[in-house]
Amino acid sequence: METAVITPNPTDTPVTNRASLKKIESQLLSLARKASLLWQQMAALMIQVEEDGLWQGEAKSFTAWLKATAEKVDLPESMLWRYLKAGRTYNALRESTDPELAAMPPLGEAPCKAAPESLELLDKISQVAPPEEAAELAKTTLAGESDREALRETWQDYKTALPAAEAELADTAPPEALAAGKALAGAMLQALRRSRGAFVAAGEPCHQWTLYSHVAVAACRFDAVCVELATPEQARPGLHGVRLAVEVSALSAAWPEVAACTDSLWLAVPAVLNQQAQALAPEWVGVLVYDARRDPASRLQVARPAGPLSRQADRRGELALELLRRLL
C-alpha cells in the first residue's frame, strides 16, 4: 500500500505563517501595553475612589480602604500608595501651563515610560526647582530619557543646593526668598552638570569628566568640583573648583585660600550679578553666568575665563584625596 505524500502548497505556508506571526505579535504588543499601563490604570482607579468618595460606607477612611484593598489584591500597601502618588503627580503635570504637558493623555489611557519611583522623585524636585527647569525635567522623565539615578542626583542637587544661601539670606530675607535662592542655586548646579566641563575646555565638553557637589577640604569649600580625569597627555587629573552665588554678599571670599586646592577657580552667578561678580572677584577667578531664558544646553556661559591662580599653598592633593574617599 502506497503512502500518500502530501506536498504543502507553497503559496499557503507563507500566508499561514504570516497570519500566525501577526497574531502573536498582536498578543505580545497587547501584553506589553498592559504591563506598561498596569500601575497607571490602578492609580486612576484609586484616584476615582478617593475623589468620588466611593470608599464611604465601606471603610472608616480612604486609608483604611486602601489597606484592605492591598490585602485583597495581595500587593504591599506601600506599592499602592506609590502608584497613587505617581498618578497624582501625572495628573498635576497635565494641569501645567506648558502646552506639551497639558496635551498628555489622561492617566491610564496611554503608556507612560516613567516608573512610579521616577514620578515620585519628579514631584519632590518640582517643589523646589524653578518652573522652567521642572517642566523640562518632566518631559524628559515622561519620555524615558531621565533614569532614576539621574533624578536622584538632581534631587540631591536641589535638596542641598548652596548651603551658604541660608547664611546669605536668612537674616534679611523671608522664607520664600530663601527658597527661591536655593532653587536658583540648584538650577545653576544642574547647568554645570549639563555643560560637561565645556567652560573649562574652551566650549568643548570634556570627554573624561565628572562633577562632585558640595566638597570641603579644611577652609576650602566648593559648591562643585569639576574633574578632568587623567589621560596619557595629562598625567594628573584637572581640578576645577566652582563657587555659586545668588546674592552680592557671597561675591567676596578668601579666594587665595580657596585657590590652594584647585587648578582653576570659577564663580557662577545669575545674569543680574555678572558685572558685580567681575568687579569684586580677582581677575584670575573665572565668571560663569546663568541665564534661565536661554536654551537648557546653553544656560551657563563664560563671561570671563579663569586665569593662572594666585596660590598661597598647594593643597590639590588633599582635595584629590577627599574626592577619592567619595568613590570608596
Structure report:
This protein has 328 residues and is of the alpha/beta class. The protein is 49% helix and 13% strand. The protein has twelve helices and six strands. Strands 1-2-3-4-5-6 form a six-stranded mixed sheet. The longest helix is centred in the first third of the chain and has 40 residues, at 12-51. The radius of gyration is 27 Å and the shape is elongated. Mean pLDDT is 80; it is low at 1-8.
What key phrases describe this protein's structure?
6-stranded mixed β-sheet, 12 helices, 49% helix
Question: What's the topology here?
Answer:
Blueprint: H1 12-51, H2 62-73, H3 77-94, H4 99-102, H5 116-126, H6 131-142, H7 148-159, H8 164-169, H9 175-195, E1 209-217, E2 220-228, E3 238-244, H10 255-259, E4 264-270, H11 274-280, E5 286-290, E6 300-304, H12 316-327
Parallel strand pairs: 3-4, 4-5
Antiparallel strand pairs: 1-2, 2-3, 5-6
Low-confidence stretches: 1-8
Shape: elongated
Helical proportion, percent range: 40-55%
- Side by side, the strands of the main sheet go 1-2-3-4-5-6
Overall tally of domains: 2
Mean pLDDT: 80
- Characterize the main sheet: 6 strands, mixed
Helices and strands, in order, run as HHHHHHHHHEEEHEHEEH
- The percentage of residues in β strands lies in 5-15%
Total strands: the figure is: 6
Q: How many angstroms does the end-to-end distance come to?
A: 81 Å
Count helical runs. 12
Based on CA atoms alone, the radius of gyration comes out at: 27 Å
SS-based class: alpha/beta
